[in-house]
Amino acid sequence: MNKEQTFTIFGGTGDLTFRKLIPAFYNMAAADNEQLNGQIVIIGRRDYTSEAYRKLAGEWVEKFARLSYREEFYKELAERIVYYRMDFTDEEEYKGLDEFYRASGAGGHIFYFAVAPRFFGTIVKGLQKVEGAGSGKVVIEKPFGENLEAAEELNIMMEAFFQPDHIYRIDHYLGKEMVRNIQTIRFANPIFSNIWDAEHIECVQISALEEVGVETRGGYYDHSGALKDMMQNHLFQIITIVAMERPQGPGVEEMHQEQMKVLETLAMPDDAAGSAVLGQYVGYRSEQAVAPHSATETYAALRLFVENDRWRGMPFYIRTGKKLMKREMQVAIVFKSSVPGVPQNILNIKIQPTEGVYLQFNIKRPGELDEIIQAKMDFCQSCSYINQMNTPEAYERLLGACIRGERSWFSQWDQVETSWKYVDALRERYVSQRLPVYAYEPGDTGPAEADLMLERYGHTWFD
Ligand code: BG6
């Protein structure tokens, strides 16, 4: 075991750890990925022995890991897992953690805060009692605060203890295979890169639809809503990747600069009523831990613009929602018609559940009639068994990147800050203009108003 590397998870008995982190560690071990080879310290309040925890975690691995469960691989991982019981909200208990680390020869710390952001402050204070913790890395989950002000406070506090370039703000959408493919599809293909602008594109549509509701996360979600839970982070990241200029080099700074330029020019028309639709699924207010009169949105659709020379005047439509008819995430590029009346070319980058690329273009109907029909080419990347097994999952990929110290696919503070400014302003406008939150039926496509918003501008959602 490599004692030079210790990976500690705060919130080690939570959903995220069981569903995503431990399975990601298992996939790394099973894929013989040497990057994570040190001790894994699981911190939780519950009374497990390491042995009992390993057994339980093994069951989650069987259910959720990408690679099939093999006893010998899990054994190799399980031997490195240690359960350490403590109340992480009690600063005094960190002295014991320090002693535990010393006794086990731990070092090269990576801390994962798999807990709500309100606990970050206490953990950071507690870690001041742990030797070597401040020079370690830390991975934090979104949401980074609840609004701009809270996010700023959180950031100051984190940066006062950890080095800024040791803070990894995870956005798991950036680890998805097809999100990473957007750049290649665009820049490596002149047929697309040469016409990737408002002159040739009619609109871009980014959809992240979910079939599930809030399930057991009502307490968190009711204070968050779709704008903060999905738009402010995941979908804004995707807009910046679709709209950015080609980075000047392969490094983190180059990509980041281009993403920031997009975020800084992102604009929504003043008329919020015509450019934003919020919705709530019927039955949401009866979900566990949701306020009975909650006005929290479980659906949001926005019409945005990127005010630069490449994109001025062309709408980016983005939408996300829970309890919809299907789970589907895609980026559809709708090109302008060559001549009025001729159907548009559409490039659809399919992110999940199917990964692939769909292209719709015009051909002549076979036979004597000189009529245009649409050809549809549908490349399915995830249909191949081999591809599926080889593609690392988002968390697996991002944890590996953090261990290697690669930061390009993590959110940077200024991105988070700018996104918060945007979402806070939108929310204020929504409240001050007293705009409604429309009801929609579970299993539907979302509120009809979201379709009307596009129709008003001569567009329809691409399905
Ligand atoms: C999370 C949100 O960040 O992403 C959840 O908090 C959402 O509400 C989830 O369900 C969706 O992730 P994925 O990978 O299933 O699209």
Write a compact overview of the structure shown.
The chain is α/β, with parallel strands linked by helices and 463 residues long.
What does this structure look like?
- It is a single chain.
- The radius of gyration is 23 Å and the shape is globular.
- The chain has two domains: 5-141, Rossmann fold (3-Layer(aba) Sandwich), CATH 3.40.50.720; 173-392 and 412-456, Dihydrodipicolinate Reductase, domain 2 (2-Layer Sandwich).
- Helices cover 37% and strands 22% of the residues.
- The relative contact order is 0.13.
- Strands 7, 8, 9, 10, 11, 12, 13, 14, 15 and 16 form a ten-stranded mixed sheet that branches.
- The longest helix has 20 residues, at 413-432.
- The protein has 16 helices and 16 strands.
- The termini are far apart.
- The protein has helices at residues 15-30, 50-64, 71-78, 94-104, 120-127, 148-161, 177-187, 190-193, 218-221, 225-243, 252-265, 272-275, 385-390, 394-404, 413-432, 448-455; strands spanning 2-10, 38-44, 81-85, 109-113, 137-140, 167-169, 201-209, 266-267, 276-281, 299-306, 315-321, 328-335, 346-352, 356-364, 372-380, 437-440.
- The protein is of the alpha/beta class and 463 residues long.
- 6-O-phosphono-beta-D-glucopyranose binds next to loops.
